[in-house]
Structure formats: C-alpha cells, structure tokens
Amino acid sequence: CRSCTRGAASMVASSRSYADFTPEATFDIKKVDLHRLEEGPPLTATLTREEGLKYYRTMQTIRRMELKADQLYKQKIIRGFCHLYDGQEACAVGIEGGITLSDHLITAYRAHGYTLTRGGTVREIMAELTGRRGGIAKGKGGSMHMYTKNFYGGNGIVGAQVPLGAGVALACKYLGNDQLCVSLYGDGAANQGQIFETYNMSSLWKLPIIFICENNQYGMGTSVERSSASTEYYKRGDYIPGLRVDGMDVLCVREATKFAADHCRSGKGPILMELQTYRYHGHSMSDPGVSYRTREEIQEVRSKSDPISMLKDRMLSNNMASIEELKEIDIAVRKEIEDAAQFATTDPEPPLDDLCSHIFANDQPFEVRGATPWTKLTSTS
C-alpha cells in the first residue's frame, strides 16, 4: 500500500541520516585551576554521540522535573521544604560520567538530581515529593531525604553529610574494594567546622574521598563575597590537592571527576573540587530568588552559560545530532514528567501502619514503642 511504502521510505531516510551523524568528537574545555597539583585534567574532552544524547536527556529530565516540582509546590500539592536543582544539572551528570554506580555519593538537601542520576526514577522522585506510598522513600522522606543503592541522601543538616561521606570512604578503604565516596556540599556550608575536621581525618587516613563544593554563588540569600573571607574554595583543604572547575560544562566536570577518581584510587588520599555553578531558582521554594540578585543576572547566566544549551550547541555544530532528534527527546521527557506527576497526585499516601516500617533493610519484624508506653507499633523491612 502507498502508506506502507511511505513509512518504509521514511525509515530508510531516518536510518540513512543517523548513519551520517558524527559518532565521536573532541572538544576544547576550560582549563582547571590547580592547588598543590603539578598536573591537572586534560584540556580536551572526547564525547561520543551516545554519551551526548544520554547526557542531554538526563539534564533535560532533571530540568523538567524541577520545573514540574515548582508548579506542584505552588499548587500546594508538594508541601514543606523543597530545594530545586535547575541550572546545576552539569554537576550531577558530569560527576556520574566520571565515576561508576558502584562508587558512593552523599549530598546535602538539593538532592533531586542526584537521586535520578544514582538510579532513581522520575516517578519515584515525584511521588516522594508529594508524600505518596510509591515514592523512593515510601513517602516518608520528602524532598530532602531520598536514597538509592550507594546514595546516602539527601541530608537536612548543613554540612553534616561531609563527615558521613568520610565514614563511607573509610569503609571503602577498610574493605579494599577500590571504590570511593563523593561527598558534596555547597558554598553555604563551606565554613562549617566539621568540614575542616573531616579534611584532617581524611588526609591522615588517606581516605578515597572526593570533596566537592558546589559553589552556586549564594548560600541562601548571602553571596559568597559576603560570607567567606576566602572564596577560593578549592584551596580550603590547605594540605589537600584542589581543582576549580567550570561547573556549567558537563564535559569539564566529567574530566575533572575522572582525574579526581584516579587520584583517590591510586592511594593518594582525598582531593577537593570546587564546581562553579549557578541555581536558577531561589534557595528554596520560600525564596523568590530576586531580593539579593537581579533578574538580569539570572538571565545573563541562562543566555551565556546554560549547561543544556552548551551541550546542545556542541552536538548540533559537530553534526552529532539533529534538531528534530533533540526535539523528540524533549517531547519524550515532557511526557515522562507528566505521567510521573499524574502518578504522584493519585497514588495513595502511606498508611499509619507503615510509620515505623523500613528501619532496617533486611530484618525480622519487631516491635517499636509509640508516642506512649502502651502504644505498640510494628516495624517490617
């Protein structure tokens, strides 16, 4: 039939055009600033077409997921604390490109993006944001407390995840499994005493840990210049080698993370990375984000340094993808987000009986005391 012929012809044209794409390209990337290092990451990065499409899709998914979370929060469907990650997507995706899923990662409360890159699904994340049973923490963690295998949250206490990350790194060294831990914190947490204590212990014990400061220029509503006597966060480890990286370029972040991971795995101990990035939203949903910075500043970053646009331009200008193909990804991502939002607003909330469950991963059911001595609850794994 004529329609079948047309379909076959379009399929042939499609396969022919895909074969014409550049399978791999090498790009110049921004030089990394070094502290206590003779050599740093390379000044070029090779990207395959498959990697480019994967990075593009993941960053778009994080971006769209956060924009949908913003919408649901304003509709009062998501309640409580909610810290969005849009603008910083190259950090999460670049870091994951430089390590493996068998490595470990812990971060602060701006954690939705890492929950996705560590193996969580959009559906699980959105349902967790709305406190539903199908959420990644069964609806009991919310925005700040999401976990997956080898991902330890999502932590609400400023800076407290950094020493916990050192504990994970100590376990890696003790077990001798050639794994490492990435311990992330923001510029707002960078002056915490517990971070410097952790630097000291990690250096003494030569722990396989990458400390990463995601410097998005503002700790809540306070600019780095107003909060820190030294804004060179990559030098803050003093005796620990450091890198300052363009956190808006996924390839820069990936290459720097690979370099840092090799440093750790070779037994040289900890290394510190500062990722210079930017958040488009306010600190949290209760912060409009324009009382301490101008709309023009935000717009300038969007127009000149957006991580998704940067990757898209590279791929299009080097014939690694077509505009139509990237649009198809955008449409598929939007549909995935809408389907997840639908699930997140219709899935039931966890019943009261689940209140004390999931304390341990694999254990026999046991009794938990309730709010009063005579109230007994049961915990199941």
UniProtKB/TrEMBL annotation:
Domain Dehydrogenase E1 component: 57-351
InterPro entries: DH_E1, PDH_E1_Alpha_Subunit, Pyrv_DH_E1_asu_subgrp-y, THDP-binding
Reactions performed catalytically: N(6)-[(R)-lipoyl]-L-lysyl-[protein] + pyruvate + H(+) = N(6)-[(R)-S(8)-acetyldihydrolipoyl]-L-lysyl-[protein] + CO2
Keywords from the named record: Carbohydrate metabolism, Glucose metabolism, Magnesium, Metal-binding, Mitochondrion, Oxidoreductase, Phosphoprotein, Pyruvate, Thiamine pyrophosphate, Transit peptide
One Pfam family this sequence matches: E1_dh
Primary location class: mitochondrion
GO biological process entries: glucose metabolic process; pyruvate decarboxylation to acetyl-CoA
Molecular-function annotations in GO: metal ion binding; pyruvate dehydrogenase (acetyl-transferring) activity
Bilayer-crossing regions: none
Domain of life of the organism encoding this protein: Eukaryota
Cofactors demanded by this protein: thiamine diphosphate; Mg(2+)
GO CC annotation, single: mitochondrial matrix
Keyword check for Oxidoreductase: yes
Locations listed in the record: Mitochondrion matrix
Known function: The pyruvate dehydrogenase complex catalyzes the overall conversion of pyruvate to acetyl-CoA and CO(2), and thereby links the glycolytic pathway to the tricarboxylic cycle.
Protein name according to UniProt: Pyruvate dehydrogenase E1 component subunit alpha
Protein source organism: Oncorhynchus mykiss
